[in-house]
Amino acid sequence: MVLSARLVLLGSKGGPAIRPGGPWPTSSLLEIAGRTIVVDCGLGVTRGLTDAGVPLKALDLIVVTHLHSDHVLELGPLIHTAWTAGLAHGVRVFGPAGTRGYWQGFLQSMAFDVDIRIVDEGRPDLRRLVEVVEFSDGQVFSENGLTVSALRVDHPPVTDCFALRFDHAEGTIVFSSDTAYFPPLADFASGADILVHEAMLAAGVDRLVARTGNGAGLKEHLLASHTFAEQAGTIAEAAGVGRLVLHHLIPADDPEISQADWIAAARKNWPGALTIASDGLVVEFADDSSG
Ligand SMILES: [Zn+2]
Ligand SMILES: [Zn+2]
């Protein structure tokens, strides 16, 4: 295995809210097969990529797991900022049904600026630089030894929500996307080097709901459509992955919850290598140095 692949967790919290000094909504950078791939584009993705040392004009592939705002809100602004930073080659965006409509709407909202920069700064037409490919279950993409496949997961009321698997000689990584506990994910993630699984901590959910101010409705949504850290451990164990990364943390910024609480919850069902996400954290594919 060639060890040049790496994962950078750019934004690690679940849900769209941000708080002073707190973590940012979900986005990840995957460098594999010599490609720069962004998985999900929550608020802060552009700043996160820049802080990770990625030149924005190197943007290559973007994959969006579903159209909840904490995964897609900054998709347009990311591509537009890359364009103003000198992006001159085509970018492909893979997303569920509705992604094309999002992109068209974004372009429409920015038509004044896009048109004026083409004339005034001689930039290529942004509308022709971006190809949107809408995907569903099965193979999403296969090129030069890199294969991406998708599995529809259980995230009501969103039906088009997909886990992603990236296979390459450098390694295999699976992202759960947002999902309730979903046993078929274990087969989908079978043998992966890294499983990035969303996670919720029971102890923090009630306090989060009280703070957010949409009591019963929010709690019902969380319990029906997300996975507890213990259950993410069960999926990792059944899949036999090399490392479990807990990501899209709910809650992510409760001062009464520490990394030790996340570890203790996952450890109930997962004895292997474990990483708790934080913004900017780098995960190497064969890194077995941390516990
Ligand atoms: Zn989410
Ligand atoms: Zn979601």
From TrEMBL:
One of its GO terms (molecular function) is 3'-tRNA processing endoribonuclease activity. It comes from the Bacteria. SUPFAM superfamilies: Metallo-hydrolase/oxidoreductase. It comes from Sinorhizobium americanum. Keywords: Hydrolase. CDD domains: arylsulfatase_AtsA-like_MBL-fold. This is Hydrolase. InterPro entries: AtsA-like_MBL-fold, Metallo-B-lactamas, RibonucZ/Hydroxyglut_hydro. The keyword Aminoacyl-tRNA synthetase does not apply. The keyword Hydrolase applies. Residues 25-226 form the Metallo-beta-lactamase domain. It holds the Pfam family Anti-Pycsar_Apyc1.
